[in-house]
Amino acid sequence: MGEWDGAGGSDVCRLQDFAEAGPDTVTFDRTSPTVGTIDGAAGSTITYTNLEVLLFESTAAGDAINVLATLAGTNYFVTGNGGGDTVTIGNQTADFNTNFDGSLDNILGDILVTGEFNPAVSAVDTLNIDDSGTLAPNVATISVNPAFGFTLPAPTPGGTDFAHATELAGFAPPFIRFVTGH
User: Fold this and answer.
1) 98 contacts: CB under 8 Å, gap ≥ 6
2) How far apart, in whole angstroms, are the C-alpha atoms of residue 41 and residue 134?
3) Which residues are CB-neighbours of 82 under 8 A, at least 6 positions away?
4) CB of 67 within 8 A of CB of 100?
5) If exposure means fewest CB atoms within 10 Å of the residue's CB, which of 81, 85, 135, 161 is most exposed?
């Protein structure tokens, strides 16, 4: 059993945009090995550093969330909240399936992507993972962990959830995981 503990650290950032009705195009990137950025979720760029957990919940509409880079030492929890959201990890020009320039080499923090955070919503989300622009071969595996545990950062009640997690190991330095039905 693997576990992802978002509640254990004191350096937690929760960005929840569930009250916004319109869709966003959000991009996670970094300006240096220690400074991360989020564009498109607010009126200006959100900059962060030294986080243990970053939880991002998108709007109530169908959002595009592009993860170009993450910081080492930060666990990322990315989720939708309505509409058919599309999460793309690795594609460098945010045009998945058009330019084959994807690289997971800049994904340095574990990512946990879930389906709809709001269980009352029955939208279908899409997860794209793109390493098409990387020339060096990866020794990678895709497996299902039937008892993956994850704890959401406070103030979310309920403790640790256990669910089936699809785990991608070796594509990027950390794990990329996808959980449905939590």
Assistant:
1) none
2) 28
3) 18, 59, 60, 61, 62, 116, 118, 121, 123
4) no
5) 135
The pLDDT-based confidence of 138 (bands split at 50, 70, 90) is confident
Question: How many independent structural domains does the chain possess?
Answer: 1
CA dihedral defined by 78, 5, 111, 143, rounded to 10 degrees? -120
Residue ranges of E strands in 3-114: 3-5, 12-16, 25-32, 35-39, 46-48, 53-57, 64-67, 75-79, 86-89, 111-114
Report CA-CA distances (Å) from 165 to 43, 45, 51, 174, 178: 34, 31, 24, 15, 5
The residue among 37, 42, 84 whose CA lies nearest residue 64 is 84
Q: Cα separation of 7 and 9, whole Å?
A: 6
> Which one has a higher pLDDT value, 7 or 130?
130
**What is d(CA 129, CA 131) in angstroms, rounded to the nearest whole number?**
7
Q: Find where tokens 């030492």 sit.
A: 73
pLDDT in tens, 55-78: 898 888 889 999 999 999 999 999
Give yes or no for a cis peptide into 155 (omega within 30° of 0). yes
